[in-house]
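Entry 14. Ran structure prediction on the chain below.
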Amino acid sequence: MIVEFIDDNRDEFGVEPICSVLQVAPSTYYAAKSRPVSARAVRDAVMIPLLVAIWAANYRVYGAHKLWKAARRAGYEIGRDQVARLMRQAGIHGVSRRKRLRTTRPDPSAPRPADLVKRDFTATAPNQLWVTDLTYVPTWAGVAYVCFIVDAFSRTIVGWRVASHMRTGMVLDALEMARWSRGTQLEGLRCHSDAGSQFTSIRYGERLAEIGAVPSIGSVGDSFDNALAETVNGLYKTELIRGPGQGPWKTVEDVELATLGWVHWHNTERLHGYLGDVPPTEFETTHYAALATLSEALGIQ
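Output, structure tokens:
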């Protein structure tokens, strides 16, 4: 730091006067300038732009742990502490989530399905448990409402919809996307939500019944009863809507286009700590490969 300071000001004040003020011998400065660059400095100079590139390619949201994992997956041998140090040196950092505001409103007159989840958001295979919720994004042209449907097994977003309203139709559109991507018959599937009127509607229950799924609804006003869906909403808001370099959001269409890119990244590239720091698609691919290997072994026996 002292050498850099002297370099920045030597043309104006001269080396000796600066060293006198700093109580540093001029010979120390000249020795530092003539000293060969260390191996660590050389490696840092190589790694910093690589880390910045990986960070920028992932919506600029990764902290030290995720960036370290991403760098290792990209083939770079580097330690976590080194990544943290180089992030500080490069002036980059991760993002943190804010508290969620409630968007859905319960319909007290509508009959409600039972809570089949009881805050246990675990699944042993895809299409056993989906969770869904709504969130919103203010734009210059009005409010954009967003619905996500998430598979609890792999955290894959299997369906989503952005609309200028929060009527039941937008939830049904997200459900149609999920049905298109996951199959038209999913017997035994539970689809969990909060008690919003969209999820207690007759049309929503009928659409689930068409694919063999059953609705599950948590208690009114308790965010923990739909914690997984709200976690995904929080990630969406933090990483995209309020993310570094994002916005301002002008129209609902702008939000929809950006959401399309974020969902693809979330499913295919984002590292999820719950999954052992791999993307959802890779986690599911590994799951199905293990099942195929097991079936083959049982067939041989």
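The chain is about 50% helix and 10% strand. Will compare against last week's run tomorrow.
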